[in-house]
Amino acid sequence: MYNAEISRSQPTAYLFLVDQSGSMSDQMASASRSKAQFVADVLNKTLRDLIVRCTRDEGVRDYFSVGVLGYGASGVRNALTGSLSGSWLNPISAVSNGTLRVEERQKMVDDGAGGLAPQPVKFPVWFDATADGGTPMCEALAKASEVLADWSNQNPNSFPPTVLHITDGESTDGDPEQVANMLQQISTNNGGVLLYNIHVSNLSMEPIKYPSSDSVLPNEHAKLLFRMSSSFPEHIRKYAQDAHGIALSPESKAMVFNAEAEELVKFLDIGSRPAAMR
Amino acid sequence: MRIAAVFRATVSKDLHIEGSNEDTYCLRLKEEKPRAAVFDGASESFAARKWSRYLADEWGKPATRDWSWVERAQMRYAKNISTLQLSWAQEAAVQRGSYSTIAYVEFEEDWLFFSAVGDSNIFLISNNEVRFSYPYVQESQFTSAPNALSSNPIDLRKNRENLLSGLDRIRYKSLETSHVLLATDAVSAWLLNEDTEVRSARLNSLLQCSQLDEFKSLVERERATHGMKIDDSTVVILEVD
Asked: Where do the DSSP E strands lie in B12-60?
């Protein structure tokens, strides 16, 4: 299981679930921006990285289908707009062409004289920060189930879809555990949907990363996220060790609690790491 | 000493996508020191097909004692990329570079000089058995991220170091070598199955191929039974007189 190669004829899917409730407007402790703004930046960078990984001299190869589901004041909505708004999941080549805008930002690079110098880089944007209303997490997970059940039926031999869920609080529309379990029951012939959860926090509390037992978790909400989270396939565990020095056991759950900026960046990098592509 | 190519073939990972094969090979068997090489462009890199072909072209030019062919390939690659109109995604992907493995052999009297960077392999065959393989000797050594030659000029020194550290020689006649075989990773891993009977049967089926269609059928059959990884698949079989 979880060993299917990813190809153009056998793509995989990434679905991002983003909490856009009012509390996401709170400022992150380690950044000068709100949680919503920071999540938007990291998500845009993750989409960019997925596209770059598929980009060749002849164009963008459709190794992935990608969607972003936002949930907050207006319930659940497709957070990708414009040409991408008509479908919950789009081929990565369409996402590449569906930017809202391409900004120019500065990156610090080696100046060749022992220092750092700013270098302009193109920063594509698909997703802007939004924060308003409650946290209809059950509705969001149910919509993800609906979208991924269809996708899995159409792609029965593919590496199973991955859901990367970013939230800062508790569900306001009921207990999401059962819906999350149903989501993980959806499968291709290569395994069930992988659900990764990250809880972002504006409190300077020690983050709890990829626990293998719920005994280390501080409260019921954290324990709920633990039960809602998948374990990592082997290739992800290896990548986490090689790229980030994070030792994951087969029992480690794909969840981070009280995450700050750095953990969010790593979580999305690890979670969106595909199996072998050909 | 007479070295003849009895078979060479390459089959794409995606049979229905034209131009998708990122493997290539190069044979220079009429030179004073006959030589041959296989190259496997890494699918995850920006212009793997182009890069592996530039490497093969430059490697195939009159042999030099240094590694200048790698630098020439890098220069051709950079020149070609500079002429392209790139999207923002392509601009970013170019920074990641392109990568290719190589395995090559060069005959000099009783000696076979060889080098490999990555998981393309060299086999010495005697009495229809693998008597020597390099750099890998068993299937489990093949990983998803092999070493490779990079198109980035900044990696020129590393490329040379990789080629140099992979360089070795063997007195092939002492092994009663009848064939020297070069293969990219899918075929190599398939040939290095842990079960010696399976290994022997696979080698025999490969040595019986004399037409591209036969090799293609073999590869498709083995892919269907998960015996061989679905990847570009290349083999060069040289007969040693």
From this structure: 23-28, 35-41
